[in-house]
Amino acid sequence: MSKRKYSGLKPTRRDYCQFILLTLINYTQTYMAEHHPFFSHDAINRYLMEGDVSPEAVWLAVKDTIRYTGTPA
């Protein structure tokens, strides 16, 4: 894992929701930090602990971008 300088940037709800929507295999904050050029694991952890990032909040933020195909199970 490469060392990064502290960028001072904080993740936002948009950053987190985009990550959840775009990742296909791993949804952990460690994975997000490893693949984002500016956010450290600690910054993401603070955002998730302090913000309103419940499953319901994430769903409300992304539900209009999800396209259903086929029939529901």
3D structure, described in words:
This protein has 73 residues and is mostly helical. The protein has one domain. Helix content is 48%, strand content 0%. The protein is built from four helices and no strands. The longest helix is centred in the N-terminal third of the chain and has 10 residues. The model has no long low-confidence stretch (mean pLDDT 81).
Keywords:
about 70 residues, about 50% helix, about 0% strand, mainly alpha
Set down the secondary structure blueprint.
Elements: H1 13-22, H2 29-35, H3 41-50, H4 55-62
Task: Offer a quick outline of the entry.
Helix content is 48%, strand content 0%. By secondary structure, the chain is an all-alpha fold.
Distance between the termini: 40 Å
H/I helix tally? 4
Strand content: under 5%
Q: Fraction of residues in helices?
A: 40-55%
Mind describing the biggest β-sheet?
none
Structural class: mainly alpha
Report the mean per-residue pLDDT as an integer: 81
Strand tally is 0
What's the helix-strand series?
HHHH
Please tell me what the overall shape is.
Answer: globular
Evaluate the radius of gyration: 14 Å
